[in-house]
Write a structure and sequence with these properties.
- The chain is of the alpha/beta class.
- It has one domain: Aldolase class I (TIM Barrel).
- It is 31% helix and 17% strand.
- The protein contains 10 helices and 14 strands.
- The protein has helices spanning 41-47, 77-92, 148-167, 182-187, 202-220, 243-258, 273-282, 301-304, 315-319, 323-329, and strands spanning 10-12, 15-17, 21-23, 53-59, 96-101, 120-121, 130-133, 136-139, 144-145, 172-177, 225-229, 264-269, 286-291, 311-313.
- The protein has an 8-stranded parallel β-sheet with strand order 13-12-11-10-5-4-3-14. The protein has a two-stranded antiparallel sheet with strand order 1-2.
- Helix 1 packs parallel to helix 2 (77-92) and helix 3 (148-167) packs parallel to helix 5 (202-220).
- The two termini are 22 Å apart.
- It holds the Pfam family Oxidored_FMN.
- Residues 6-334 form the NADH:flavin oxidoreductase/NADH oxidase N-terminal domain.
- This is Alkene reductase.
């Protein structure tokens, strides 16, 4: 891999990045039971610091935000101390850390949360998804519909979590409005049947995500706030309608978010390049684009086409802590072991080998 576009430096808000790669957020289920990052998290993320922009796994802003066992939080003093070790380790290796704030909404189960309450969502509609719990695989339960007042409480949880991330030494946060989780659920007509100002129209369904972005940017600065979206992604049982419905929803959402001058827009892209081009035209700062199925020779394709500024890496980076060096040298890549993605411990987490040098 010698594509020169990948190796151009980039200014991202307050940060100077050495190239156009980044670590994509990936859930690893290795936090302590109280949500504090585990002992190996600092090693895992610092191993990948050469990616420059290191975006963490989804991190819940509250007890209600947790969906899976052993995922990290960023809302207690203990969480802050745990993440500080991660931030310091990444910074010591020359990288920059953004903590992804992920409220899962209805993609949860009472057995997976510290308070064992039913999940919350825009409407009381089950996702009908299988989810892993401490006692094995179960179906997601029917969530409780958030009241209008409670929605403002969740906005506050995101704001507090963002402040906590900065207190932990992170360089910024990424708001997770994608992949079937709470903010995405508000955007999807089949998950959002509300009759108040957060449901019904394109404008109303986008309101919650916009309010979260406004609150987080107001708390820590727009130049430390990114957001992730995934138009038409069917994860979590969501259905956002036909192509034109999706385009109308996301052109409105991205247009309103663009006014906030957030540091980046991260698009988990399914292939509607016309829609992606429309984002590019209105977005004033950096655009990150990740697609499923890229091989090493197509990593730079969206950058070369002018559709993206940064190409985050997921599984390539998970299995290759020195993926930047491997791509620069054209070296072979380690294969991913799917069996160890979520199993805990160092196996399949911090033990992927780096290149050996004579």
């Amino acid at each position: 891999m010698t594509t020169s576009s990948l190796w151009q430096p980039l200014t991202l808000g307050r940060l100077e990045l050495p190239h156009r790669l980044a670590l994509a957020p990936m859930t690893r289920n290795r936090a302590n039971p109280d949500g504090t990052p585990g002992d190996l998290a600092a090693e895992y993320y610092s191993q990948r610091a050469s990616l420059g922009l290191v975006i963490t796994e989804g991190t819940q802003p509250s007890e209600d935000g947790q969906g899976y066992p052993n995922t990290p939080g960023i809302y207690t003093p203990e969480h802050v101390e745990g993440w500080r070790k991660v931030a310091d380790a990444v910074h010591d290796k020359g990288g920059h850390l953004f903590i992804q704030l992920m409220h899962v909404g209805r993609i949860s189960h009472p057995d997976n949360t510290p308070h064992h309450r039913h999940p919350v969502a825009p409407s009381a509609i089950t996702a009908e998804q299988d989810i892993f719990t401490p006692t094995g695989k179960q179906k997601t339960t029917v969530p409780r519909e958030l009241t209008t007042a409670e929605i403002q409480g969740v906005v506050g949880e995101f704001s507090h979590a963002a402040a906590s991330a900065i207190a932990a030494g992170a360089d910024g946060v990424e708001i997770h409005a994608a992949n079937g989780y709470l903010l995405h659920q508000f955007l999807a007509p089949n998950a959002n049947h509300r009759a108040d100002e957060y449901g019904g129209s394109v404008e109303n369904r986008a309101r919650f995500a916009i309010e979260v972005a406004q609150a987080v940017a107001g708390e820590i600065g727009a130049d430390r706030t990114g957001i992730r979206i995934s138009p038409a992604f069917p994860l979590g049982g969501l259905d956002e309608g036909d192509t034109e419905a999706v385009r109308a929803q996301y052109r409105h959402l991205v247009g309103e978010l663009a006014k906030l001058n957030l540091v980046y827009l991260h698009v988990h892209h399914l292939g509607d390049d016309e829609l992606l081009r429309s984002f590019r035209k209105v977005w004033p700062t950096t655009v990150l684009v990740v697609r499923y199925g890229r091989d090493r020779d197509s990593i730079a394709a969206d950058i070369d086409a002018g559709l993206a500024d940064v190409a985050p890496l997921g599984r390539f980076a998970l299995a290759n802590p020195d993926v930047v060096e491997r791509l620069q040298q054209g070296a072979p890549l380690n294969d991913l072991d799917p069996a160890t993605l979520y199993t805990g411990g160092s196996n399949g987490y911090t033990d992927y080998p780096a290149l050996t040098h004579p």
